[in-house]
Design brief:
Blueprint: H1 8-34, H2 51-58, H3 60-91, H4 98-110, H5 113-124, H6 129-136, H7 150-177, H8 182-190, H9 195-206, H10 208-223, H11 227-232, H12 246-254, H13 261-286, H14 288-314
Helix pairs in contact: 1-13, 2-13, 3-7, 3-10, 3-12, 4-7, 5-7, 8-9, 10-13, 12-13
């Protein structure tokens, strides 16, 4: 058997390393550098320090975009954390034909986000299906402008995001539910626990890890939402741009020959810092036991050192 050269493993990982450096690390570092300049496409950049970040505090559009993204997070995280779990519990049973329903629930995930958003726009437009149905049943005298009101537009976009993400996170929970022992449910049922009690006391603790993962993925995705709001608002961000998300604002400020690339980079850096928050929270929660043990060990070590110093002083 021919012996491999020492550099063979490095050659195998070299393409992946080059890809990460060129298309991930370098763009990120370049964005951080540009955030402190007044860069534009057709003129050299000048260092301006924290001027771009000071401008954010006075920019009304940034306030609207940040509010939209935070509302998206607050609404989407609980919905896409618990609804897919309930859906997974419904299709977890091994009964004939259940595969059809699993495939049906997963279908929105593989559909193009742009195509789905266009269909959603047709449904909620002034002359769309929803308004026609409301008028037919006598629930509305005139069309409701779902896509012309800031909060209704955001609500429609959130509905689209939730509908499209249910199937994906359902699959995550289906894999997790397979690790929840049936004997635990049977023991809880013998103790008199009802379905709701078994759900909170057995199922939820059994899928705690995947649930936290889903929460983080949903939170990061909600902060970076773009397609839904862009298509439903025809790229305008709603009335006065008040339904614009953070990513839409970045795209709006940085596009074109006169785009404010430096300012858009500053917004990108702020968005990056916001996305780090849920990751840090989950990291602390997942390693809470290890952190507590480390803190306890540190306190014990300090106590031992203090005791030794007291003995030395006494001598």
């Amino acid at each position: 058997m021919k012996r491999q050269s020492w550099y063979t493993p490095y050659l195998l990982v070299l393409p992946a390393v080059v890809w990460v450096l060129v298309f991930a690390l370098w763009p990120f570092l370049n964005t951080v550098i540009l955030a402190f300049t007044d860069a534009r496409p057709l003129r050299p950049a000048t260092f301006v320090g924290l001027a771009n970040f000071a401008k954010l505090l006075e920019d009304e559009r940034f306030g609207y975009a940040l509010t939209t993204s935070l509302v998206y997070v607050v609404v989407c995280v609980p919905l896409l954390t618990f609804l897919p779990l309930l859906l997974a519990m419904l299709v977890h049973a091994k009964i004939p034909g259940i595969g059809f329903f699993r495939t049906t629930f997963y279908f929105p995930v593989i559909a193009s986000a742009v195509v789905v958003a266009i269909v959603w726009e047709f449904l909620f437009s002034g002359s769309g299906t929803i308004n026609a149905a409301l008028k037919f049943f006598g629930l509305a005298d005139r069309p409701i402008e779902f896509l012309s009101d800031r909060w209704l537009l955001i609500g429609c976009a959130i509905g689209l995001t939730v509908w499209k993400g249910l199937g994906y996170y359902m699959v995550v929970y289906l894999a997790a539910l397979g690790n929840v022992g049936r004997e635990l449910h049977e023991a809880a049922a013998m103790d008199g626990a009802g379905r709701w009690r078994r759900f909170w006391s057995v199922t939820v603790p059994g899928v705690r890890g995947p649930m936290m993962l889903v929460s983080v993925l949903v939170c990061v995705g909600a902060m970076r939402v773009f397609t839904e709001l862009y298509v439903l608002s025809n790229g305008s961000g709603g009335p006065g741009g008040r339904a614009m998300s953070m990513v839409m604002l970045i795209q709006s400020m940085g596009k074109g020959l006169n785009g404010q690339v430096g300012y858009a980079s500053a917004i990108s850096l702020v968005l990056f810092l916001f996305t780090l928050v849920p990751l840090a929270v989950v990291g602390v929660l997942n390693n809470s036991d290890t952190i507590r043990e480390a803190l306890a060990t540190r306190r014990a070590t300090r106590a031992v050192r203090a005791a030794r110093r007291a003995q030395e002083v006494a001598r």
